[in-house]
Amino acid sequence: ISAATFAIWLVTTGGNVNEALTAAVAVVVISCPCALGLATPVAIMVGTGKGAEMGILFKSAEALETLRGVKTVVLDKTGTITRGKPVVTDILPAQRADGTAAITEKGLLKLAAALERSSEHPLAEAIMACAEERGIVARSVKAFQAIPGRGVTAFEGTNHIAAGNATLMADEGIDIDHDELERFALQGKTPLFFAKNGEIMGIIAVADEVKPTSTDAIAALRRLGIQSIMLTGDNELTARAIAERVGVANVIADVLPADKERVVRELQAAGQTVAMVGDGINDSPALARADVGLAIGAGTDVAKEGADVVLMRSDLLDVARAIELSRAVIRNIKQDLFWALFYNSLGIPLAAGVFYPMLGWQLSPMFGAAAMSLSSLCVVGNALRLRGFKPRT
């Protein structure tokens, strides 16, 4: 439009027709929006490629863009902050009121193995590994039932047996030693209670080792201005013991799998942009609900399917690195858009002949074509700088 307007004005005021056509062609060439069109897709392409090189797989450009605005990161505990491979640390048979043992240590482990053989929970795997080390063969049970967030129950012959946390024992009407519960919890261990026919048989404590990089990852997120929240179904004392060890200030414990999604939704309703990091099937609804879901690479396929970003190295530090990369990519896009707009804002008036009446400046179409190509080269070159991106974390 500017080219046609200037050409008509130049001809009607006695200007040369060739000069008018030259100006029109120059404007058309230099105002080609290639640079503006290249700014975003090239930066995103380079950014996602750099992320893949770092072991961070972005499933969409939207996830890459949204991640830079995250202010709250919700972290699952087991398998995310911790290794997800707990081990048995204590086997404590119960004592009856008369001082006699309700069961032997080997008997308690046999009972535990019979219950946990059908469970897929990481704590069950720890108990089965301990039983195998001691040469114990798990007996078969009937009517096995897994109660999410509580434990498992079954029948061994005519005996009703149960294993789980304090909530399950309360549901079964079984009294437990709360002093022992608190003692194990303060040590960062998860106590599992075992009962037969309504009588407590003992406690097996399981501990999950914290990943070596978890503390550094929480500190890195804090430096980025992001608050971390631990969300777990574990006992609150156990969760807080782990949280203090890695530096997480906010802990939400005793959460059922179905409630994790609700917690994320409540944080979003409070106006926060939330990222959820998890690895298990019970994390899938929360991963899907969050503004950005990040799945640990060693986690379940269901979790990875529902997430927007997959961290292949299962390293919590990659959460901070992904956020840094996201911010770098968006910053690069803004730079490209600004300079492309600034470049065209100067070049188009020159090509349109705004300065011709006063200074006699007129841009040749050949120089206009070269200038247009240069703007595209500048945008692509700036985007390629992301290949050298190095996170501070």
State the main characteristics:
6-stranded antiparallel β-sheet; 7-stranded mixed β-sheet; 393 residues; 3 domains; Rossmann fold; alpha/beta; Calcium-transporting ATPase, cytoplasmic domain N
Notes on the protein architecture:
- It is a single chain.
- With 393 residues, this protein is of the alpha/beta class.
- It folds into three domains: 2-40 and 325-388, no CATH class; 69-83 and 211-312, Rossmann fold (3-Layer(aba) Sandwich); 87-207, Calcium-transporting ATPase, cytoplasmic domain N (3-Layer(aba) Sandwich).
- It is 51% helix and 18% strand.
- The chain has helices at residues 2-12, 17-30, 34-53, 61-67, 77-81, 105-116, 122-133, 166-171, 178-186, 214-223, 236-246, 257-269, 284-289, 301-306, 317-352, 356-359, 365-384; strands spanning 56-58, 72-76, 87-93, 142-147, 151-156, 159-164, 190-196, 199-207, 227-231, 250-252, 274-278, 292-296, 309-311.
- The strands form two sheets. It has a seven-stranded mixed β-sheet with strand order 1-13-12-11-2-9-10, with helices on both faces.
- Strand 12, helix 14 (301-306) and strand 13 (309-311) form a beta-alpha-beta unit.
- Helix 3 packs antiparallel against helix 15 (317-352), helix 6 (105-116) packs across helix 7 (122-133) and helix 10 packs parallel to helix 15.
- The longest helix is centred in the C-terminal third of the chain and has 36 residues, at 317-352.
- The two termini are 50 Å apart.
- Mean pLDDT is 83; it is low at 7-11.
